[in-house]
Amino acid sequence: MLPVSEVVELSRLQFALTALFHFLFVPLTLGLSWILVICESVYVMTGQQVYKDMTRFWGKLFGINFAMGVTTGITLEFQFGTNWAYYSHYVGDIFGVPLAVEGMMAFFLESTFVGLFFFGWDRLSKNKHLLVTFLVAFGSNLSALWILIANAWMQNPVGAEFNYHTMRMELVSLGEVFFNPVAQVKFVHTVAAGYVAAAMFVLGVSSLYLLKARDTGFALRSFAVAAGFGLASILSVIVLGDESGYTTGEVQKVKLAAIEAEWNTEPAPAAFTAIGWPNQAEERTDYAVKIPYLLGLIATRSTDTRVTGIKDLKREHEVRIRNGMIAYEALTALKAGDTTPAVRERFEQHKADLGFGLLLKKYTPNVVDATPAQIRAAASDTIPNVAPLFWSFRIMVGLGMLFLAIFATACWLLVRRRLAPQRWFLKLCVLAIPLPWVAIELGWIVAEYGRQPWTISGVLPTHLSASQLDPGQLHFSLIGLVGIYSLLFVIEMYLMLKYIRLGPASLHTGRYHGETPDVTVPQQS
Q: Model pTM?
């Protein structure tokens, strides 16, 4: 039998792979749905057939992606019960609420209207079909809202308290959970990133058609829609990324310090480490190149507020772990029947740090007798591995700057009617198609890995959250999951590439004859 820590790591690996794979499909669904709304709105207003064809063609690719996203998302939710049973027991009263609302309100909405989108073209009027398309987009994004509310509560657990009678976290304020500041920032930042991915997808595929000098009227209009939508989206991502950094600085100081490899608390305003090599063993960043004042301005929006460094955070956590030991001792007495005012008062005074006391369960079954060495080890565990966070964040930001340059250049070339000769740029757009997904996956690594060692920040350690499973079951399910998901990915890519190769001509008998704007089309070399 493997140690519990290895069972936890296997469960974490399985959940991470499922989540990262599922999020290959979500961004395109979120963004492409609004591109469909834009295209169909122009069709309703102008009556031009080319915009109807744009809606139907990109809608076909949306439908393939939507089906795969639903399939992988359901598996993800089941894992809370199969792999993370104690997590579900401990916080299910809070975490389950937004997920239930998402299923009843958003998922049923988008699933119902997505059928009308595909089969209602000849049964609904133009305006009614446009309303259906809008409701599909609204439902998809509403679904993301509720899921991100649930995820944000894991990052910043507000509106809930521990009840020693039931030994569970219980909901005390639905409003605080729904209007969690982390949820608001996370939602708008995440969906805007999805819009960028969809815009780059449409921009790249349209560029491919232009390079091949085929379906040029369709391709140029699609390119124009994607360029404008993408530029607005990437600007939103950048602005909201700044807001996300500020929110992280307020409620997740460890994550911020790890992302920035901020080992020491510097005088305000702190410098931003643009590049370097984090050395966790020595608690320093080698070959660091710093930009004065920038981190302080991003994280605190002031020139006189300090950004707490990792070393000071570890010392603060040692204090909280010792307070958690007191809370655990009082909780043990309450469970044994000692409900005297002194015991209840001692528990209420220290219960906010109970989760930090539970970190010691990794080292000793008897928390109250933990040694100073075990306390220091538990405090060190509160700091995630810095290097993956440091580099993931910087690569993500670098890609964001690249997307801004691509979309801005695309808009400028369209306005100046100089897109045609720029074959190098069209090739760049094709090659850039997968890059938004790289940036998005890195963003999720920063968000989720940066929360470790917690499943619920400051409340429930990851090593206590997993189900008591046999390792063989985990190996079997992990192998099966990778195999099935790999097959689904192959099917997805086959279908997407098949219809991209067919192009808008697949909507009609024979070659597509959409109207070609008065723009010189690049010829295939």
A: 0.90
